[in-house]
Write a structure and sequence with these properties.
By secondary structure, the chain is α/β, with parallel strands linked by helices. The protein is 30% helix and 22% strand. The protein folds into 2 domains: 2-215, TIM Barrel (Alpha-Beta Barrel), CATH 3.20.20; 226-337, Lyase, Ornithine Decarboxylase, Chain A, domain 1. β7 (140-146), α8 (156-173) and β8 (181-183) form a beta-alpha-beta unit. α5 (75-81) crosses α6.
């Protein structure tokens, strides 16, 4: 992961907010935050107050930025702990201002701008009108402004337009001197576009070893490897069904290995019948039948050496997670964040 962080720094050249929401994309929130706490990051980006609490509880002092809107009931804690919220409305700003005034402090905040994501933030035309009111909230320090790219890996023309619109808005609001932090890019934005006035980027996926653009993949190192073990090896006769629904029936005597992992662990059931494979002893082996909650069956007829206890790579350096996501007709983000708590996480420095 540190190698991928170095790649992000080289590609961007500015400050970084490492996105660690959703349990650091399934990798383990506290462990990743502690591992990167000495990397001189501008922020850790989290989705909500619960994640912010977990980072703070791990003893990490890197500033915490809340990427999403917050409940009114959560804001007093945000003010008390000096977490940095993004503001999407005057109502939010006024409430944070009152809470900060009550505690006799000035809370750092960022303005969120909706340049096309449609998920939150001020519309640009509204912000131009309301900026005077926001400046009048004396217990808020507007230190940053940011937006989000919804299709940087799919629609270059639209994304270039977002960069232009963001620049134009910042200019109208007072220019680059007006905001300490100016941020727009996720991993795809960081890797694929000139950053213009932005001096902060928010990489997520690329730090976990997956590039949104295939051409950059060789510059990144695999971070997560999902492993299991062979629990049973048997030879089944021709005409024998494998797994629920008898989706697969053997046509010949078949040596079948059972692996102790399934969709209950987060391996996607939708890989069933799609040509999914696993990696054992430097070879690929095909998945047979439907993936069950706790177990998967594979064909090891061609490998007499496979035995109980053998380590199995479900995805990792030999079998890319992007391949698994494609067969499951989903995205890598969902695969990573879907790995369930019962899967043991092991960390190597």
């Amino acid at each position: 992961m540190r190698q991928n962080l170095a790649t992000a720094r080289e590609a961007f050249g500015g400050a970084l907010m490492v996105v660690v929401k959703a349990g650091a994309y399934g990798h383990g929130l506290e462990e990743i935050a502690k591992a990167l706490a000495t990397e001189q990051l501008a922020f850790f980006g989290v989705a909500n107050v619960g994640e912010a609490r977990r980072i703070a509880g791990a003893g990490v002092s890197t500033p915490i930025y809340l990427l999403g809107a917050t409940w009114a009931e959560e804001r007093e804690e945000i003010v008390a702990r000096n977490w940095v919220p993004c503001i999407s409305s005057m109502a939010e700003a006024e409430h944070f201002n009152r809470l900060a005034a009550a505690k006799g402090k000035c809370l750092k905040v960022h303005l969120a701008v909706d340049t096309g994501m449609g998920r939150g933030g001020f519309l640009a035309e509204h912000l131009k009108v309301q900026i005077g009111e926001l400046d009048g909230l004396k217990n808020l320090e507007i230190e940053g402004i940011g937006s989000h790219l919804p299709s940087a890996d799919e629609d270059e023309d639209f994304t270039q337009g977002q960069f232009r619109d963001f620049r134009a808005l910042v200019d109208v609001l007072g220019g680059t001197e007006r905001f300490k932090w100016r941020h727009l890019s996720n991993s795809a934005g960081l890797l694929g576009y000139e950053q213009g006035i932005c001096n902060l980027s928010r990489p997520g996926l690329m730090l976990y070893g997956v590039s949104p653009f295939p051409g950059f993949q060789e510059r990144l190192a695999t971070v997560m490897t999902l492993k299991s073990r062979v629990t049973l090896v048997r030879t089944l006769p021709a005409g024998h069904g494998i797994s629920y629904g008898r989706q697969f029936v053997t046509e010949r005597p078949t040596r079948v290995a059972t692996i102790g992992i399934g969709y209950g662990d987060g391996y996607p059931r939708h890989v069933s019948g799609k040509g999914g494979e696993v990696w054992i002893r430097n070879r690929r082996f095909p998945i047979l039948g439907r993936i069950t909650m706790d177990q998967i069956m594979i064909d090891v007829t061609a490998a007499d050496e496979i035995q109980e206890g053998d380590e199995v790579e479900m995805f990792g350096p030999h079998l890319p997670v992007a391949e698994v996501a494609e067969k499951a007709e989903t995205i890598v983000w969902e695969i990573f964040t879907g790995i369930t708590p019962r899967v043991l996480r092991c960390y190597k420095a």
